TrEMBL record:
The keyword Metal-binding is assigned to this record: yes
Keywords annotated in UniProt: Dioxygenase, Iron, Metal-binding, Oxidoreductase
UniProt domain Homogentisate 1,2-dioxygenase C-terminal: residue ranges: 282-369
Gene Ontology MF term list: homogentisate 1,2-dioxygenase activity; metal ion binding
GO biological process: L-phenylalanine catabolic process; tyrosine metabolic process
Descriptive protein name: Homogentisate 1,2-dioxygenase
Residues holding homogentisate: Y323, H345
Amino acid sequence: MAFYRRVGSVPPKRHTQHRRPDGGLYAEELMGEEGFSSDSALLYHRGIPSALVDARPWELPDQTLTPNAPLVPRHIKLHDLFPGEEHEGTDPVTGRRLVLGNADVRISYAVSSLTSPYYRNATGDECVFVERGAATVETVFGALQVGRGDYVVIPRATTHRWVPTGDEPLRTYAIEATSHIAPPKRYLSRYGQFLEHAPYCERDLRAPSEPLLAEGTDVEVYVKHRGPGGLAGTVHVVPEHPFDVVGWDGCLYPYAFDVADFEPITGRVHQPPPVHQVFEGTNFVICNFVPRKVDYHPLAVPVPYYHSNVDSDEVMFYVDGDYEARRGSGIGRGSVSLHPGGHSHGPQPGAVERSLGAEAFDELAVMVDTFRPLDLGEAGTAGDDGRYAWSWSGRGPSAGG
C-alpha cells in the first residue's frame, strides 16, 4: 500500500516513548517490506510481540503439485470439491484445497463455516476473493467486515483470523503470493496516489478504522513459512493475545475492495485483458471481468479473439453471470479454466456469431495470469472434468474421437 493511515493511540513522534495509563511503555514494532526501504507500519503493543512459550510443527494442507502433462487446457469444477455439508467441518485457512500453483503463486479454494485459527502467512501477501457468504476478518490492525464480491488483501506476516458470519457458507478463493500484492504501478503516481485513468481509487478501499483488542493467554498462531524444499508450517504459542495493538500508523495494512466498485474500461472494439487488471504481484497479475457495456463499433465482435499466451498461463474463475465466450463448454458458476502458455484459446464454436450485436455482458470472473507455468494441485486434479480440452473440436479421448 502507499496511502497513509493512523488508527488508535500513537505518539506524536515515531520511535519515542509511548506510555500506558499506568506509566509503563508500550512496545513499538516496525512491520516493513523490502528491508526497511519500502512501505511499513508502526504498531504499539501492550505486550512483547516477539514472546513465545512453545512451538510445534503444523502439517499444512496437501501442497503437492503435478505438471500439466500432457499440456492441455483444463476445466476445474470448484463446487464439486466440497459436496453437501462437508463445509461444516472446515475453516477458511486450514480447509483450503490447492487448485493450481508454481513458485510465485498458489491458488486455493475453501467452503467453510468454522472460525479459522489465528494465522500468519510469512511467505507472501494474500489476496482472498469472497465468492459467497460473509465474514469478519480480525487482524492485528483491526477488523474488516467482508462479503460477497470483496477482495481482501492481507500483507505478509499479518496475524489474522477469519470468522464466518451469516447463514450462508463462506466460499473463498485464495491467491497466495511469494511476493507482495499491490495495485498496478501504471495506476499510481510516483508518490503513490491513484491516477485519473485508474478503474478504482483510494475511496474504494476499506481498511481497519479502530484497534481490535482481545484478552487471552497461551494463544496458538498458525504460521506458514519457507522451509526446506518449499513450504512449512509451525504453530507458535504466544503468552498474551496477539491482538494487543492500541494504535498504529503507516502505509502497510490489510484492506478490502468490492469488485462492484471496479469501473470497467470499454471501447469501440474489443479491449485487451490489461484493461481489466486490478492487482499485481511478482510474475503474476490479477484481473476481473465485471458486468459492462461492450464494443460499440458497428462491426465489432464483442467476445475475445483467439489468442496465444506465449508468456503466461491464464486462469479464469467464473463467479457469476453468463460468460458468453464459454457457452457450450460446460463452464458455469464455480468453474475454473486453465489455458496454458503455448496453447491458443478463444471463444467456443458459435460464440462469435451469437455475440454479434450484443450491447452488454452480465458476467463476473476473476483472472490470474502467471508468467511461469502452473502445475496442478490436488484439488485441480480432483476437480478436472477431463473433457474441456476437446470442447473446440467435439472430438478427443473423452468424446470418443
